[in-house]
Fold this protein.
Amino acid sequence: MASRRFPASDPVENSLRLISRYPSLPAPQALWDYENENPLRDARGFDVEGERERPGPDHNRALNKLLPNAGRLYVDGAHPEYSTPECATARDLVAYERAGERIVAQCLEAVNRASGDGYVLYKNNSDGKGNGYGYHENYLMSRAVPFHTIIQTLLPFLVSRPVFAGAGKVGSENGAAPATYQIAQRADFVECLVDLNTMVKRPIINTRDEPHADSARFRRLHVIAGDANMAELPTYLKVGTMAIVTHMLDEGAACPSCVLDNPVEAIKVVSRDLTVRADLKLADGRTTNAIALQRAYLEAAHDFYACRELSPETRDILVKWEIVLDKLEQDPWQLARELDWVAKRHMIESYLDRKGCGWGSSQAALLDLQYHDVRPDKGLYYALERNRRIERVLTDEEIASAEFHAPRDTRAYFRGACLRKFPREVYGASWTSVLFDVGATSVKRVPLMDPRRGTRDATDELLDGVETARELLDRLSPGTTGRRTHDGDPAAMAR
C-alpha cells in the first residue's frame, strides 16, 4: 500500500488504517488467538531461534480483523494481508480469494474518502524497486508423508508451474539477470531450494511446520513460490493441480521422479522463456522443458484416477490442465484470454506499439503495476473483465456471496456461524479455535483441530435454536458450564 501524495508515509500505520476501515466486521472487538501458532518450527525436525508473535490485546485487535466469511484481514510486517477461510475445492478458493479483492478495495476507498490521500493497493508480488511479497498457498496433507518425499516430488512441479500460473512481469529484480518481460513475478526472488525463511533466502519449498491442526495427523504444506494472479483460470489451475499432486502424495501414488540439476536457476529460465520451450538440465545430464515436466505430472494424475471415482471438479481441472498445456505448446499467444502473463503482455505490447515506447520505459513499468490495482475502476485486469476479454471461472454472484458467507464444507463454517450468531460473545478466534467470553472467570475455547470438521452438515443441528454462546457451550459440554471446554472439535462433541 502506497501513497502518491506522501511516498515516505509509514507503511505500518497505513496498513493498520486500511484494515480498520472494512465496514462489515461482525465482531470488531474480537482478537486473534495465537495459542497454536509457531512459525519457527521447521519440518526438517528443529526449531529456529526467534520470538513468537504475542501482541497485547489492544495491539492484537488493531492487527487482526475477523471477517464475516471466516477469513482474516491483518497486518503482517509492513503490509496488509488477506487470508481466505479454509476451502475444500479449488473453485471455492478462487471465489474467496476474489472476495478478498472486494474487501480490500472497500477498505482502500474508505481510507481515501476519509483522508483525501491518494493511496493505492496492488495485488502482486513486487513493487519494481527490489521489494518482493509472497503469495502464500496452504495445503492440508497427511503427517505420514515424509517431508523429503514432498521436496523431491514438488521441486520440478513448482519450477514448471509458472507456464500457466505466472502473473507476468516487466523487467527483472533482486540482482537477477536482465529481462524485458517474464512469465513469473516470484522467480527473481527465489534464492534457495528449501528453507524456513519467507523474507530472505526465499526457497522453492518452504519448511514451515505450523499445521494449524492436529500436528499428530496433519501437515500444512506452506507454498510461497507462486504468483498472485488476477485472472481466475490461473488461480483455479494453480491450486487445483497442486491439490491433485498433494492428494497423490498422501495416497502414496507414483509421481514423476525426475531431478533437476539446478532448480533455483531453472525457475528463472522458465520465467524468462516466453516460448515455454527452453531446455532445463536434469541431474543425469539429459534435458527437458517446462511443458514436458507438467505433462509428466498430468499423465501420472490420469493414471492415479484411472481406477478411482473422479469428482466433477477434479475432472474439470484435468481437462483444463491438458488444454492449456496443448495451447502453450502450440502457441502461448492463443491464451491471451486465459492466462495473466499472456494477457498482460498483449495489453502492454499493444500500448507500447501505439505510443512508440519501449519495454524499458516508465510506461511499461506503470502498466505492469496498474494491471494489479485492486480499484475496480482503475485496475487494468478489471478493464479486461468489463470488456469480456478474459475468461471467467466464476460468476459475480459467487464472489459477492463469498464476501459474507463462510464455506459450508470446512471448519470455517462453524467459525463463521459463531461470528454471525454471537458477535458480542466471541472474544477471539484462530484457524484452530473459537474463544468465548460468557462472563465467567476464564475465556472458553472451542478447539477446531480438524479442518474437515465443523461443517454445516455436522454443526447446523448443534447451532439450531441456540441463542447465546453459553447455550452453545452447554450443548458442547453438558454439565461443565464454567470450565474450559475439552479438546476436540464441535463436530465431534456434537455427536
In short: Residues 408-494 form one domain. Residues 479-489, 491-495 have pLDDT under 50 and may be disordered.
